[in-house]
Amino acid sequence: MSSYGPRAGDIVTLGGTGLQLHIDDRVDDQYDEFRVGFAKTGRDGIGLKSVATQDSCDLLLSNAIVLDPIDGVRVASIGFRDGRICGIGKAGNPDTTHGVDIVVGSGTVVIDADGLIATPGGIDTHVHSLSPRVFNSLISSGITTVIAQETGPVWGVGIGSRALLHQAYRAMDNFPLNIGILGRGSTSADVVTREAILAHVCGFKVHEDTGTTLRTLDTALRAADFADVQVAVHTDSLNESLSVADTIAVLDGRVVHAYHVEGCGGGHTPDVLQLAGHDNILASSTNPTLPYGINAIDEHLDMIMLTHGMNAHRESDIRIAQARVRATTMAAENQLHDRGVIPITSSDAQGMGRAGETWWRTFALASVLRPDPTDSTRRDNERILRYLAKITINPALAHGLSHEIGRISEGYLGDIVLWQPERFAATPQLILKSGFPTWGQTGDPNASIDSAEPLITAEQFGAYAAAPSDLSFLLSNAVAIAEGPPPTHRRALAVRGCRSVRNADMIRHGESGPVEVVTSLGSNPQPVVRWRGEELTMQPVEHTPLSRLHFW
Amino acid sequence: MALTPGEADHLLLFTQSQLALSRRARGLRLNVPEATALIAHQICEWARDGLSLDAARTQARTILGVNDVLPEVPEIVTEIRVEARFDDGTRLVVVAHPFEPSPTMDIDEASAPPAHDYLTLHNMAETDIGVTSHQHLAEVNPRIRLDRSRAFGMRLALPAGDTQWLRSGTSVTAPITPIGGDRIVIGNTGLVDGPLDDSHVRERALRKLRQCGYLDESQGEPIGDLAGANRAVSKIMDDLRKSRQRPQ
Fold first, then answer.
1. For residue range A48-91, what is the model confidence (pLDDT) as tens digits?
2. A143-398: what fold?
3. Is residue B71 part of a domain?
4. Which is the most buried residue in A160, A209, A246, A280, by most CB within 10 A?
């Protein structure tokens, strides 16, 4: 590899995942590579043009390996102006360099990203914000947008109270994340959903612990249609009121986001995974079952008990918890990800998932299921982009955010994660929030260089004082925004398109066909799962990539 | 203890290195944070013991070999940087490829654009001078003698960001290539400040360079002397001052 980062034709290995990224395209910058530093080209009148930043850019990421879930892989520079991406391409001074796409001004600051991978910031649509420290864990792993459901150690799964929502938003102003909260959707009365809509929720949660019935689903969906927001559902694990076919009937073609569709996180026992095969159901997984590992079964019984107010000494509770833990559906869920059927991954932080592990578990799964790991010329680009879509553009599409975030594309908000390829999906190098350095690797604060050990994943300036709320959106809804400003310093973003998005719209996913969970009369706790005539299964993995290598 | 933030951070190195040692004692191969901390902390301890920076840096390679760490680790931990308190104060220690017994030097490949022409640069200054890849050659240091007319609109044909180092009193014949893009040079001495292919801009700039005393040559014949070259920038400043005093 050259000192200017990879060239077309190079293969970049994504560290411990072993995934191989083929560089097919690099901007035509040979002999004119933009460099900053002593004796480099980034100097006034040479690589820099003496124009105001409104005619150049505020900040430049130079020569990064840009991964966009739609546009694919390209080595290019990224320019930012007023917090947004203003250009992707060849950077420099058009006075002295041919084919410049991004004018670098004398006033522009530069981040040398040669050889680093740039991805959109991760979007975690399933977070139980039971303590503020959960957010630190999320950001440190490369997440820049969060859809939360609580404000502290409360029984939330959606908040209905205007007073609590407003206080929560004000409390969250310190975090450099785009933040939205789901309203309580498990209700029979419009007055409850109306209070939440006007208090700036970005969607609703319908959860069986607060009631997933015909009436609650229908109430939440009508409210969602009214405000153009999404409904996240945790269906009836007990099949007490509805079976899976009934839930599908109640949805009546209306769109929902089906959380933890495999079912150990909750949902119709044992066949909730069927939901993944419907065009109006956007399915997601939570991270502890990605990839399906040898200890997954053993940890989940306790996890279910401890997150759902259950008693490990009551036979009744043990029985219903055990019914949620199934090897066959965990294995099938992994395969459905690889085949482009389940389009979204999320954490379920502190509610049966881990805030800081969505990036690495998503790409660990991509690694585990890659064919022929020993082939050194294997091309994993499509696989890498499919898995990237699960944590960026697809959750953005599902929750009405895809016009602002989830991509590296001109006009999009400058939420970017930079990774060293060797540490990809494990530890971010630097996170830009709205084009401003906000979090990342920080070295010994007394050292003569910025990269002396111990390197710690920590705050940058974008995480201080008023910057987090200046740099971040409140994810809200158009009805509330029309009524008045949000109770926070943040700009409010009206989510949109939530009611018309379909599974077929999911980027590098949308593979159709029923997901059959084969059940029959008589107890069948480990049902076979079929898709397109094939039984979907896998052996649990003994070693999950990245885990042991990067984390102690 | 009055610990400073940097010292508090170094305690994390100590803790992590103790963890690494205990895992190593159980026969485990170390991972990225364990291997990094063990080496970085040991360097700090050797500094405390009174070793020199060079001795600590050399010995750092003996701490862990490739068989002591997980197989992927040498490709990830390619360099360890840590600041340690040596007898003469805090010093930066950098260990490249820390699992290899002797240091290897990585040389990056970089390619230069094809030569359009060649030009000889004579450094008449009493100091060495560096000329970088994309600098407009006609405007380089007045004490370099070169055919500035042939250098006009040209740059060195070097890989981007590379430097041609000219030792004092020596000459180098270097490949050159035209400046690209819209071919406009703004800034530097201000003697060009315009489109390179505009004949008025070109003639005015070359005339001013000579008038100010820049060493030049024409068909191999030297123009100007070192004393004049030494005064060239002052002359530009004199002209600048005069032009600013003129009524607008």
1. 999 999 999 999 999 999 999 999 999 999 999 999 999 999 99
2. TIM Barrel (3.20.20)
3. yes
4. A160
End-to-end C-alpha distance for chain B, whole angstroms: 65
Read off the tokens for B183: 């071919």
Please tell me the distance from the alpha carbon of residue B79 to that of residue A391, in angstroms, as a whole number: 31
What phi and psi, each to the nearest 5 degrees, are found at residue A87?
-175, 150
Does residue A207 carry a catalytic annotation? no
Q: Tell how strand A91-92 and strand A256-258 pair up.
A: unpaired
CB contact at 8 A, A172 and A487: no
**Closest chain A C-alpha to B62 CA, distance in angstroms:** 19
DSSP H or E segment with residue A20 = strand A20-22
B157 and B126 co-located in one domain = yes
Active-site annotation holder among A126, A308, A337, A399: A308
Kindly give the pairing relationship between strand A59-68 and strand A117-120: parallel
The domain of B150 spans 117-245
Q: How far off is chain A from B228, nearest CA to CA, in Å?
A: 26
Mean pLDDT by 10 residues, chain A (552 residues): 84 96 95 94 96 97 98 98 98 97 98 97 98 98 98 95 97 97 98 98 97 98 98 97 98 98 96 97 97 95 92 91 95 98 98 97 98 94 98 98 98 98 98 98 97 98 98 98 93 98 98 94 90 97 95 86
Q: Which residue of A has its CA nearest to B92?
A: A448
The reply to whether B19 and B91 lie within a common domain is yes
Homologous superfamily of A11-115: Urease, subunit C, domain 1 (2.30.40.10)
Residues 57-76 of B with CB under 8 A from A: 70, 72-73, 75-76
